[in-house]
Amino acid sequence: MTVLVGVQGPTWSRAAIQEAAQEARFRGTTLVAVSAYGAERAAAAPAARPAARLHSTTEQRAAAEAVLQSAALDALGADAATVELRVMEGMPGRSLVEAARQLGAELLVLASRGDGALSWLLGSQYVLRNAPCPVLVVPDPAPAAS
C-alpha cells in the first residue's frame, strides 16, 4: 500500500507533498510522487505555439523528472530521498488513476491553488471520479498579508 501524490511543479505541489508525506508516515507506508508527461499534453499547448517547438518524448520525460525531483526537494528537504519518484507518459489525471491502481494506493493527494482550482487542471475531474481510493485535495497555504 502507498500514499500517492500528484506533482505538477514545486510552486503548486509543495503543500500537497508535505501533507502526503505526513499521511505516509502516519500510515507507515511508502510515499510515491507522480508526474505526467507526453504527447497527450500537447493538446493543451497554446494554439499559437508551433508544433515544431514541442519537445521530444525524451525531453519531456527528462523535464518531468527534473520537476519531480525539484518539487520533492523543495517540499521535504533531506527527507526527499525517502520519496519514490515516478514519471508516467500520458495525461495527468489518467496517469494518476493508473498509478493508484497499479500501486494499490490507499490515498491519492492533489494540490489546489489559492483560488481553489486543482493543480492538475487537465484531469482533476477524472481523478475525482475514477480514483480507486480516497482523494485528498490540499489547498495552498494562504499568502502572507502585506
How is this structure best described in words?
With 146 residues, this protein is α/β, with parallel strands linked by helices. It is 39% helix and 22% strand. The chain contains 4 helices and 5 strands. It has helices at residues 10-27, 57-76, 92-103, 124-130; strands at 2-6, 30-37, 84-89, 105-112, 135-139. A 5-stranded parallel sheet has the order 3-2-1-4-5, sandwiched between helices. β1, α1 (10-27) and β2 form a beta-alpha-beta unit. α1 (10-27) crosses α2 (57-76) and α3 (92-103) packs parallel to α4 (124-130). The longest helix is centred in the middle third of the chain and has 20 residues, at 57-76. Mean pLDDT is 82; it is low at 40-49 and 116-122.
Supply database-style keywords.
146 residues; alpha/beta; five-stranded parallel β-sheet; 5 strands; globular
* Apparent shape: globular
Question: First CA to last CA: what distance?
Answer: 43 Å
Rg over C-alpha atoms, rounded to the nearest angstrom: 15 Å
Q: How are helices and strands ordered from N to C? A: EHEHEHEHE
How many strand units?
Answer: 5
Low-confidence stretches: 40-49, 116-122
Query: What percentage of amino acids are in beta strands?
Result: 15-25%
Strand order of the largest sheet: 3-2-1-4-5
Annotation field: number of helices: 4
The amount of helix comes to 25-40%
Mean pLDDT: 82
